[in-house]
Amino acid sequence: xxxxxxxxxxxxxxxxxxxxxxxxxxxxxxxxxxxxxxxxxxxxxxxxxxxxxxxxxxxxxxxxxxxxxxxxxxxxxxxxxxxxxxxxxxxxxxxxxxxxxxxxxxxxxxxxxxxxxxxxxxxxxxxxxxxxxxxxxxxxxxxxxxxxxxxxxxxxxxxxxxxxxxxxxxxxxxxxxxxxxxxxxxxxxxxxxxxxxxxxxxxxxxxxxxxxxxxxxxxxxxxxxxxxxxxxxxxxxxxxxxxxxxxxxxxxxxxxxxxxxxxxxxxxxxxxxxxxxxxxxxxxxxxxxxxxxxxxxxxxxxxxxxxxxxxxxxxxxxxxxxxxxxxxxxxxxxxxxxxxxxxxxxxxxxxxxxxxxxxxxxxxxxxxxxxxxxxxxxxxxxxxxxxxxxxxxxxxxxxxxxxxxxxxxxxxxxxxxxxxxxxxxxxxxxxxxxxxxxxxxxxxxxxxxxxxxxxxxxxxxxxxxxxxxxxxxxxxxxxxxxxxxxxxxxxxxxxxxxxxxxxxxxxxxxxxxxxxxxx
Length: 519
Fold this sequence. Notes:
It holds the Pfam family Phosphodiest. By secondary structure, this protein is α/β, with parallel strands linked by helices.
């Protein structure tokens, strides 16, 4: 492929990428491209979001804000007033994104399969977004999907390419990666842009469901029926390595490249049914489910099971969505059937209850803390957050919103997300080398902008990393900030006391999620 009009910057994402898995494969020579990229880059672990989840993770990267600043907490609205399953997307961001920052400075943007990028935002370039529901309207311009199909370079939207309970997915995942590679090769050649970003998502699903085949120390380790299942993690990383090699060949050695993940991975053991725990304590009530469900009742699927459903007219607290690691108060005037007028005692009771949970195999606490949302998610989008965030002490336990069945069950996900992700930057601003101290996910996009000689807004949490190759705490300056439309320099300089305090704080569909083991 000719190296014509290469991007000025490239972002390569691995959803669920983990140095704990990549580095051993690099050491044995199985990932030569990633090995060279890491050797040429400053790199190391990142701290991600609580929970360590795809939706807030990628949203934090592309906005350089923690969740209280951007407002994405899960795939679903965690404060849906009718207890529904409304999917969130780019319209739910409470702020602008890096895509707009590039556009304001005259740079065009190309996006391929970036989580939480749907529906497309109005920026110059092209987008193949990441819809959470089946649709053919996930490209901008709209004709791009047809163009790719005619060129033999199309790929399935991620929602159509997920694991659905069939272990033959191991082979399909490798083909999905290669199909994304064909798409990327086409757009790099035919649609040059200034900044290009692509995310490969398949390793996340493979780690969730094939971990126990590869990990001899896992409690459920078994010899698989097919060797491909034991090799699934390795084979998928090799396919990613090949695709990244094609990309790096196309863009050349001088282009700055950022590699990152939204979270890491480790073994998973149990699901705990949080709503069933709340029901046993009298904080949540159920009733016989209407058959068929009453028209327009709006209840999400996870609030119904085994002929029963949550009775929100008698419920004080509930886990609102899969994967949120959180509890809501059923607040009067906010939720449709809200009955709680004083949330404090309910939150305290729920926190005490859940902090007392012990894992059935280790006897150790499942949750290390239960934080009110104002403490967990400070920022202008706190109102969209769940009321009580549960911080895992045991990342091998998945919090589930199930309302019935055993409180504990072996998890369908034998691999689970971890709080430490990964990053690497090949450029001139940071000395190459392995950093052991984690850096914040929100710092990575400002670091890339600084590398590219561009600016970013003042009111973001992230700041460019500084590192001379010696390990230790990175310094960070304020970066070069530009003003948002209509913003005055004096407003940025002074700001309110509340805003200053806030900015200084530190840190699918139901069927698809069910098949993946979230429900």
